[in-house]
Amino acid sequence: MDIKESRAYKYAVYAAADDNPKIGKYVRKQCAEWVAICDGEIEGVYIDLKMFSKISKLLRVMIHPDLNTDMLNGLEDYALVFIFAL
């Protein structure tokens, strides 16, 4: 899976938009920084695609207790940003 096709990246792009009043200032800043890291714009910092793939696979194995689906599909987009950004 390409990181730019993930729900986490798409949400981060949405949250980083300046014209979005629903997102707080610091969440917007953090999402903008993570998008810049994903896009390779910040020198010396990178996304470990192997770890991204491993985390995605682990989330697919875990079952969401309320939704009875895997956690990758059951979690909200903003939660995926926090998981992958760490």
Briefly say what this structure is.
This protein has 86 residues and is mainly alpha-helical. The protein has helices spanning 7-16, 25-38, 49-61, 71-74, 77-85.
Tell me what you see in this structure:
The chain is mostly helical and 86 residues long. Helix content is 58%, strand content 0%. The chain has five helices and no strands. Helix 1 packs across helix 5. The longest helix is centred in the middle third of the chain and has 14 residues. It is flat. The mean pLDDT is 91.
What characteristic shape results from the CA principal axes? Answer: flat
Give the % helix.
Answer: 55-70%
Number of helices: 5
Beta-strand percentage range: under 5%
Helix and strand composition category: mainly alpha
Characteristic terms for this protein:
single chain; 86 residues; mainly alpha; 5 helices; 0% strand
Q: Helices, strands, pairings?
A:
Blueprint: H1 7-16, H2 25-38, H3 49-61, H4 71-74, H5 77-85
Helix pairs in contact: 1-2, 1-5
